[in-house]
């Protein structure tokens, strides 16, 4: 097949500032009024820090106090902050704690850590696992589902780079996940997927890949 294009993987921060962040209300049963209240506390701290109403030290201190009260949104926000500051050990602990208690809401950051081998041993399969969780998470507070899906496509593509005999299963998965990322709103020009499409069509595998994309999309909220 044609040489696959090497794509850089998008590992965006799991912290996003939005005017609507304080009123985020996902349509999922576990996100109760109590969860909404705890999320508002965490996001108010985030906005106060972003608007320079509190400094870094105060921000971390307030998030820590909040985390110690079992507000796992604060734990996740603090974990993301520490990840940005390269405090990897504490970041991993807090992100894992938050993710386990908030239905995979911080899986993207954990996927990034495993993909890049920061704070943990680099593990592509663990990265795939967490990116898949991020893509399918019920709560997409920071809009990373589409990036998680894209990253999965890149990882499966990279598995086949430089091979003479390509594994059609990996190519099928890569194509499907790229298609899912587009359905989720990632509008980047993914030239490599045209190469994958051509390869699959030449081997009568395109229909199967399209069906896989549809199947995956059916398990992800707001995937059309």
UniProtKB/TrEMBL annotation:
Taxonomic superkingdom: Bacteria
Pfam families recorded: Sel1
SMART domains noted in UniProt: SEL1 (SM00671)
Alphabetical list of SUPFAM superfamilies matching this protein: HCP-like (SSF81901)
Signal sequence interval, chain numbering: 1-18
Keywords recorded for this protein, A-Z: Signal
Protein name: Sel1 repeat
Record organism: Legionella wadsworthii
């Amino acid at each position: 097949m044609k040489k696959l294009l090497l794509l850089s993987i998008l590992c965006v921060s799991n912290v996003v500032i939005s005017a609507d962040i304080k009123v985020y209300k996902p349509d999922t049963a576990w996100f109760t009024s109590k969860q909404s209240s705890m999320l508002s506390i965490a996001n108010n701290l985030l906005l106060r820090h972003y608007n320079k109403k509190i400094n870094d030290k105060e921000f971390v201190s307030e998030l820590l106090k909040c985390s110690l009260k079992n507000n796992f949104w604060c734990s996740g926000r603090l974990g993301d902050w520490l990840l940005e500051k390269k405090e990897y050990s504490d970041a991993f602990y807090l992100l894992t704690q938050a993710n386990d208690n908030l239905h995979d809401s911080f899986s993207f950051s954990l996927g990034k850590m495993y993909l890049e081998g920061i704070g943990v041993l680099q593990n592509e399969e663990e990265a795939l696992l967490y990116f898949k969780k991020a893509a399918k998470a019920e709560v997409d507070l920071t809009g990373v589902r589409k990036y998680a899906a894209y990253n999965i496509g890149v990882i499966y593509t990279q598995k086949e780079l430089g091979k003479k005999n390509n594994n059609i299963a990996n190519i099928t998965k890569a194509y499907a996940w790229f298609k899912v990322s587009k359905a989720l709103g990632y509008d980047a020009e993914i030239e490599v997927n045209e190469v994958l499409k051509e390869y699959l069509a030449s081997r009568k595998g395109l229909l199967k890949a399209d069906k896989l994309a549809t199947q995956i999309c059916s398990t992800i909220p707001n995937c059309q």
